[in-house]
Design brief:
mainly alpha, Growth Hormone, Chain: A, 18 helices
Length: 398
């Protein structure tokens, strides 16, 4: 980790993630509150999250842009574009203008999908292959750390000055991220001339990922545990009811889980070198599975410990999968392949949240949560099972 932080470009790049992550986390919470205050509708407030997540389903197509142009200029221009677009929210002061907020959030999600592909590809030019795990872990630690402080800042600004002030803060963070990207010295080769259309290039990334059994297993296992975890998250307030705690107690559990993710982000580089991607991901999935099952125990101490364990375990398959994709994918395919992996691992969240919302009303959590835990352990066991022999052209993954 010290080797990563001694590198000038690595520090600058982490700085871009720090400032943009702060603004993003602040706006995501504030947007729902903003809509709720203007309309009084819980459904419309919930649509804010959906508006941001929906474009991720087109991740493989959007991520192709990261392979059709140089990544650093792409990040500069998309950050500047978002900074300008967010200023349009300064006029949203009534329910009749909320369409503008939702439109901006959809663009926000699309830009995030493009930037995810570009960022994953650019990382490989900033740090050496042996430090990718450390770098990805530090990214995770920074993002989770921002989730601990930025939402409170966003809610405070919203309460004091209104939603437009939060949008302006986010615009400033995007502009700052663009400035930091401009200072990067990363050298990128000009992309090769295009020999296929946009859709054909998008399919190439998905085909490459799916054709590598080691990558496919990591990504599908990550998507499976993310879906199970999102189902479990939908039952949070039922868990609090079982504890006899008010809904505000969720404000205690969230930071505990976030603290676990920060710790794991810092430690992940060393653990990846010791365990390899497959075992690191499997052990993290197993820890997450145990934490989901233990949440059914009506004890404050157990539930708090489970939140910490989930924070430690859930980042592991994500860090492992993205590190494996970065190490084994040719640079010309990396943007769209990383975007495809991102979609396969995060899109199941939407399915899990919908399923959890239905299950919590139909089935007792004392049954549902242990079943989710056992399912997670089966995912971990499947990942630990030896992989089939790969063909010579398939890039190996540790």
């Amino acid at each position: 980790m010290r080797r990563v932080l001694r590198d000038r470009d690595a520090r600058l790049y982490l700085g871009t993630l720090l400032v943009s992550g702060f603004g993003t986390s602040a706006l995501f919470l504030a947007s729902g509150i903003w809509v709720k205050e203007l309309t009084g509708s819980n459904g419309l407030a919930a649509l804010c999250t959906f508006a941001v997540w929906a474009p991720s389903l087109a991740g493989p197509v959007l991520g192709t842009l990261a392979d059709r142009t140089r990544r650093r200029p792409l990040l500069v221009w998309t950050n500047l574009g978002m900074a300008g677009l967010l200023t349009s929210l300064l006029v949203v002061d009534s329910a009749s203008r909320l369409w503008l907020l939702f439109a901006v959030l959809v663009v926000y999600g699309a830009v995030a999908a493009i930037q995810d592909g570009a960022e994953n590809a650019l990382v490989t030019t900033i740090v050496g292959e042996e430090l990718l795990g450390d770098f990805n872990g530090l990214q995770m630690a920074l993002r989770e750390g921002m989730k601990l402080v930025a939402p409170l800042a966003g809610a405070g600004l919203l309460a004091a000055y209104g939603g437009p002030c939060v949008a302006l803060l986010d615009a400033v963070t995007f502009a700052s991220a663009a400035g930091l990207c401009l200072l990067l010295r990363a050298r990128e080769e000009r992309p090769a001339p295009r020999t296929a259309g946009w859709w054909a290039q998008s399919v190439e990334g998905a085909r490459y990922l799916w054709g590598r059994p080691a990558l496919r297993r990591l990504v599908t296992a990550g998507g499976a545990i993310m879906m199970l975890a999102s189902i479990s998250s939908s039952m949070l307030y039922a868990v609090l009811d079982a504890l006899g705690r008010p809904p505000t107690f969720a404000g205690v559990l969230g930071p505990v889980q976030g603290a676990g993710s920060v710790v794991m982000g810092v430690a992940s580089g060393a653990l990846l070198r010791r365990l390899g991607e497959r075992r690191f991901a499997a052990y993290g999935i197993a820890l997450t599975a145990v934490s989901m099952a233990a949440t059914a125990v009506p004890s404050d101490a157990v539930v708090l410990a489970s939140s910490l364990a989930r924070g430690l375990g859930l980042p592991c398959p994500l860090i492992a999968a993205f590190t494996a994709v970065q190490r084994s994918t040719p640079d010309a395919l990396l943007g769209r392949t990383a975007a495809t992996a991102n979609t396969l691992m995060f899109a199941p969240n939407a399915v899990g949240l919908a399923a959890g919302a239905a299950l919590v009303e139909l089935v007792d959590i004392r049954l549902t949560l242990p079943v989710l835990g056992v399912s997670g352990l089966l995912v971990a066991a499947a990942l630990l099972r030896p992989a089939r022999t790969v063909t010579p052209e398939e890039a190996p993954v540790t």
